[in-house]
């Protein structure tokens, strides 16, 4: 399940924010927020995607580096919030 | 020298449970060598102030111990070092107060009570601190504590409290205390808003040597920013009234914005220092001058502030409002963040300066910037922006577009910044009204400049790599133990060599003089003039936080001498040209001793109106320093000189010597004419006109002031000059200064000539003496030109410009924010003036030629 989530999130990020980028460049540990890929607008788009795709509700403090900086972090967050 | 914004290395962020922190001997020595060179540079160039130099020494020495300590002891050691730094800079008593108040604030956050209750308690304590800050209740600690207390807690407490409510990580006393009492903070009232979670999470999160090396590089970058700032501050800044052509306008706009280098320089120093203790914090600024849009600018400049706003205000607001739809939520949340930024700017000002800043330029600046960021954000939300994980491809088209965007953004930001920094809306508007006259004529210069900018910008952008928001291969930086320190050491050695006088003077007089001037921090000519005005005027717009003058004002006690003189009732307004005078026969105690006015309205002992036979009487004209600002009766150089003359000369050529002190505070050259006429009624044998700095500028300023107030200038030649310059009551002030500046010399020349002619007509010796304020850089204060005017007018001149040479200025001035001489300074002036009079005794004290008395000609 974690692999599915990682794959889905990765595809979304590549499609939405890194069109035309080599998928091999984006790994599960690539820093997204601290690396400048995701600014505030992109982060909120990602939050909206996660909430819609996985029927979750994120809190404001979860739109943060600690939870969304890498695909691994995002996967961990989704898994922690799923029942 | 690329630095990842998070500073993360390729090593995963957590390696098991144990933290890293070890360093090899070779790596340790490399860091030590760089820090030693850096310490030399800090001392040679007197970066910041002496307190910071001492703190830097403590920091670097502390690093040596800290780096070899076992990990569990490092955070406690850092805390102890930070507390030692507080004691070193503020003193033990103030330090204890600061730490005590801080512990109470931190303690309230951790009380075992409901969050709402803790919030209320914090607000109540905050309210009490507000009451103490505005002096409604007297605080038992020194004023010096407030800016640092504010700096440590005003924002970090908000960030910390927010994280306490949302963070599950265990609390560590050492970490919490270290977070608030951060070592460099005691020297920097303006401090980056370090995020608590980042502070916790990034502690030794990669190899120690990498963290230390980044820290050293950032400190070096900070020093370079600060030196560049000094160059801009000393040599490029203009006042609005000095802008007379397109070149001046560009210089004014760009230099005003570039003064921000001081903030970015300080922040790099601060965060670099923290790296030395394992705090692997991100960049505070990321090439903000290369922003390609307003959102990009917002993301690059003061990144810690942006992150603080995002976390505590923007995201919570957006999440509350998103049910309205993403676009309305984005718009309202963005405006909300800028409104909060404006408010917190004023809130910060309150803690640092003790007053709440509310000015229309401030409000308009943030409003306009908010509108621009919202428009950009809406565009980005709809169309996205370019991002890449690899290096961006370069074409002439992409370079041109990027450069145009960068230039456009930079230009608008400079424009907005100039507006924010201007004294008033009318001043800024007057600047552009004049600009309209020349922009059309010189617009043809724009195209070649633009083409050059595209070429240079395109190639430079390629060299630096990446466009706005396009990151480098982040998270992949590993520190090469050869390349990074080597280039840093070369740079440091270069700076050390340039700091040596024998070396930089070999580069030519001009370059050598410039480098020599960069070796100390002092006020530039504009801020010095503002400081002088600030003794007498309540200057509310000393609010550019990057201004060295505003830092001085932070230290100035609320009730300084200016307020004292206003409140003790020694001065009154008059309806005449001089506008103010002393109230006769008044004696009041002040902080610096007795302040007495005799029956004639002079700050002096009593005299008869006419001198006794065989008495040599000198009438002394001057301003605040001559009057004896900040010293008690009898301690002025005038009183000391008079005593000495009577002790050593009385009974020889003359039985007695008298010096009548007609000086008043804030009296400008035109006002001296009024006191000169009064002095003549006391039948002096000599008139001593004591000039301070900025004689021409101050004369100009005063004449504009009286015209604007509708006060008649009683001297026809001065009225003619004002008419020639086209100065009327309704002329806007900046424009009036611009028109009158070419006549400055003529104004002062007439004033001096008039005094000399009237003296000669009465057989009175006219003597002109220059007594500087207690500061360096006399050459900047119009003195050479004014001295020439005095000589041409016919004065006997006495130049005491070197009276404070080779003296420790901190021991002879009243305070850092008040450059009037103290009692020791007055003694030095009296001694040197005595020596000068002795040298010119034959000229000044020879028996006067009896002259026909004539009425004063105006």
Question: Which properties best describe this structure?
Answer:
heterodimer; A: 83 residues; mainly alpha; Non-ribosomal Peptide Synthetase Peptidyl Carrier Protein, Chain A; 55% helix; B: alpha/beta; 11 strands
Account of the 3D structure:
The complex is a heterodimer of chains A (83) and B (858). Chain A is mainly α and 83 residues long. Chain A has a single domain (2-14, 27-81), classed as ACP-like (Non-ribosomal Peptide Synthetase Peptidyl Carrier Protein, Chain A). Chain A is 55% helix and 0% strand. Chain A has four helices and no strands. In chain A, 43% of the residues are buried. Chain B has 858 residues and is α/β, with parallel strands linked by helices. Chain B has a domain at 609-844: SGNH hydrolase (Rossmann fold), CATH 3.40.50.1110. In chain B, strand 1 and strand 2 (580-582) form a beta hairpin. In chain B, helix 1 runs parallel beside helix 10 and helix 3 crosses helix 4. Mean pLDDT of chain B is 85; it is low at 1-19 and 457-478. The A-B interface holds A 16-18, 21-22, 25-26, 29-31, 34-37, 39-41, 44-45, 48, 59-61, 63-66 and B 4-6, 8, 12, 162, 166, 197-198, 201, 282, 295, 299, 310-311, 314-316, 318-319, 326, 330, 377, 380-381, 384, 387-390, 469-471, 474-475.
């Amino acid at each position: 399940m974690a692999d599915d989530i990682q794959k889905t999130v990765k595809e979304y990020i590549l499609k939405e924010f890194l069109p035309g980028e080599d998928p091999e460049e984006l790994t599960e540990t690539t820093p997204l927020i601290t690396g400048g890929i995701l600014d505030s607008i992109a982060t909120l788009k990602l939050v909206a995607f996660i909430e819609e795709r996985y029927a979750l509700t994120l809190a404001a403090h979860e739109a943060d580096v600690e939870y969304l900086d890498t695909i691994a972090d995002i996967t961990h967050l989704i898994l922690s919030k799923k029942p | 020298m690329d630095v990842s914004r998070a500073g993360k290395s390729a090593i995963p962020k957590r390696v098991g449970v144990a933290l890293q922190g070890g360093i090899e001997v070779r790596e340790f020595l490399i860091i030590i060598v760089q820090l030693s060179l850096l310490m030399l540079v800090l001392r040679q160039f007197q970066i910041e102030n002496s307190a910071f130099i001492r703190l830097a020494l403590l920091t670097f020495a502390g690093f040596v111990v800290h780096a070899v300590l076992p990990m569990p002891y490092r955070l406690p050691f850092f805390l102890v070092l930070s507390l030692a730094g507080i004691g070193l800079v503020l003193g033990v008593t103030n330090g204890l107060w600061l730490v005590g108040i801080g512990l109470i604030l931190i303690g309230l956050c951790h009380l075992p009570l409901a969050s709402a209750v803790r919030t209320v308690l914090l607000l109540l304590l905050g309210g009490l601190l507000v009451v103490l800050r505005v002096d409604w209740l007297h605080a038992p600690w020194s004023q010096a504590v407030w800016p640092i207390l504010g700096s440590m807690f005003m924002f970090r407490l908000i960030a910390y409290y927010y994280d306490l409510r949302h963070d599950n990580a265990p609390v560590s006393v050492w970490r919490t205390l270290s977070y608030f009492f951060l070592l460099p903070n005691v020297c920097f009232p303006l401090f980056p808003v370090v995020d608590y979670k980042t502070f916790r999470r990034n502690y030794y999160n990669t190899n120690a040597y990498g963290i230390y090396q980044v820290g050293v590089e950032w400190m070096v970058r900070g020093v370079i920013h600060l030196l560049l700032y000094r160059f801009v501050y000393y040599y490029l800044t203009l006042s609005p009234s000095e802008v007379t052509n397109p070149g001046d306008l560009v210089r004014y706009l760009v230099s005003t914005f570039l003064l921000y280098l001081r903030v970015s320089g300080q922040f790099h120093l601060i965060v670099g220092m923290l790296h030395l203790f394992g705090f692997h914090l991100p960049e505070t600024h990321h090439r903000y001058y290369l922003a390609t849009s307003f959102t990009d600018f917002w993301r690059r400049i003061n990144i810690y502030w942006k992150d603080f706003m995002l976390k505590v205000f923007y995201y919570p607001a957006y999440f509350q409002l998103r049910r309205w739809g993403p676009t309305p939520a984005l718009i309202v949340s963005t405006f909300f963040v800028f409104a909060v930024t404006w408010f917190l700017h004023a809130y910060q000002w309150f803690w640092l300066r003790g007053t709440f800043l509310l000015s229309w330029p401030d409000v308009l600046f943030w409003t306009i910037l908010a509108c621009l960021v919202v428009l950009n954000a809406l565009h980005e939300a709809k169309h996205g922006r370019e991002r890449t994980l690899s290096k961006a491809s370069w074409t002439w088209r992409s370079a041109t577009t990027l450069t145009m965007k960068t230039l456009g953004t930079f230009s608008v930001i400079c424009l907005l910044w100039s507006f924010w920094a201007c004294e008033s809306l009318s001043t800024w508007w007057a600047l552009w009204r004049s600009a309209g006259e020349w922009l059309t004529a010189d617009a043809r210069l724009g195209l070649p400049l633009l083409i050059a900018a595209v070429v240079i910008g395109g190639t430079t952008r390629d060299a630096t790599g990446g466009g706005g928001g396009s990151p480098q291969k982040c998270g992949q930086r590993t520190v090469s133990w050869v390349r990074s320190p080597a280039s840093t050491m070369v740079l440091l050695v270069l700076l050390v060599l340039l700091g040596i006088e024998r070396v930089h003077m070999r580069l030519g007089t001009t370059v050598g003089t410039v480098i020599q001037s960069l070796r100390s921090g002092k006020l530039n000519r504009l801020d010095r003039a503002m400081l002088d005005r600030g003794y007498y005027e309540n200057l509310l717009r000393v609010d550019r936080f990057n201004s060295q003058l505003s830092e001085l004002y932070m230290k100035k006690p609320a009730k300084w001498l200016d307020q004292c003189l206003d409140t003790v009732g020694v001065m009154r307004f008059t309806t005449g040209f001089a506008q103010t005078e002393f109230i006769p026969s008044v004696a009041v105690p002040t902080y610096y001793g007795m302040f007495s006015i005799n029956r004639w309205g002079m700050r002096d002992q009593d005299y008869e109106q006419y001198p006794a036979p065989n008495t040599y009487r000198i009438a002394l004209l001057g301003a605040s320093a001559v009057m004896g600002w900040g010293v008690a009766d009898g301690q002025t150089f005038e009183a000391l000189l008079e005593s000495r003359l009577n002790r050593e000369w009385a009974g020889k050529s003359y039985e007695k010597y008298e010096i009548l002190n007609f000086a008043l505070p804030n009296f400008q050259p035109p006002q001296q004419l009024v006191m000169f006429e009064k002095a003549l009624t006391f039948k002096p044998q000599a008139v001593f006109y004591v000039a301070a700095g900025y004689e021409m500028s101050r004369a100009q300023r005063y004449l504009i002031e009286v015209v604007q107030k509708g006060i008649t200038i009683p001297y026809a030649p001065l009225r003619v000059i004002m008419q020639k310059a086209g100065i009327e009551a309704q002329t806007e002030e900046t424009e009036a200064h611009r028109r009158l500046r070419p006549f400055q010399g003529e104004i002062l020349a007439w004033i001096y000539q008039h005094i000399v002619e009237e003296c000669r007509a009465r057989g009175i010796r006219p003597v002109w003496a220059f007594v500087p304020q207690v500061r360096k850089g006399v050459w900047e204060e119009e003195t050479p030109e004014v001295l020439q005017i005095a000589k041409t007018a016919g004065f006997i001149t006495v130049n005491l410009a070197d009276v404070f040479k080779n003296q420790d200025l901190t021991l002879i001035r009243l305070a850092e924010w008040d450059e009037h001489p103290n009692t020791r300074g007055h003694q030095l002036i009296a001694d040197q003036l005595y020596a000068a009079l002795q040298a010119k005794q034959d000229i000044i004290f020879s028996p006067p030629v009896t002259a026909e008395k004539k009425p004063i000609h105006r």
